[in-house]
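Project standup — Tuesday

K.O.: blocked on the structure for the chain from last sprint. Re-posting the sequence here as requested.
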Amino acid sequence: MKFYNIIIKYRFWLSLIVLLAAIILNITHAAGFWPTFPLYFLAVIGLASHFFIGPLRLIQEPMEAGNIEEVEKIINSIWFPNLLYKPVRSTLYTIKGNLAMMKQDFDSAEKHLKKSSSLGSPMPEAEGNNKLQLGMMAMQKGDMKQGESYIRAAIRAGIGDKESEAVAYLQMCQIFMNKREFRAAKDFFRKAKALKPKTQQVVDQIKEIEKYISRIPG
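H.V.: unblocked you, prediction finished:
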């Protein structure tokens, strides 16, 4: 795995070296093009994968270790993001959006997550998580209508983990309570509680809502 990561990290420069070696051998040997074809082929594959797939595979290890500086360094090494294969580009913007949210730069986060959402995702749950984050940001700005639209879309797309799914249902519960549609609010609350989330913040939110939702008619 480490060897493969080294290849990915230095793929561009290694491909140039192989290409240069192929050209030199081609010029200095009378054998012609075909004996050096495998080197040309390797160089082209290396350069194409550098520009069309990129180095996102390298992000996993520093992300798990919480090394955000290294993650940003890897992302910044992508010179032409528009050349990336569409699902890879979508993943790139999702990561950039999440990093911006960690820095509480919500405008940049929204911009990147919208780009990711517009490109679509190879994994429906990733698209669901994107739309959930966009919905929560819209609600923070007081745009309840847009927030509801995004969160509904997130639930339809599917959300990757039970904790985030519970958050989506709780957000919908609050939206419908504000609209005084109490039956729907209670239904979303029951769905959130049924997921049995473990995250303390989500558990506390459920307890807080539970204090008064049982007294509400509907």
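K.O.: great, moving the ticket to review. DSSP finds twelve helices and no strands in the chain. The first helix runs from residue 2 to 9.
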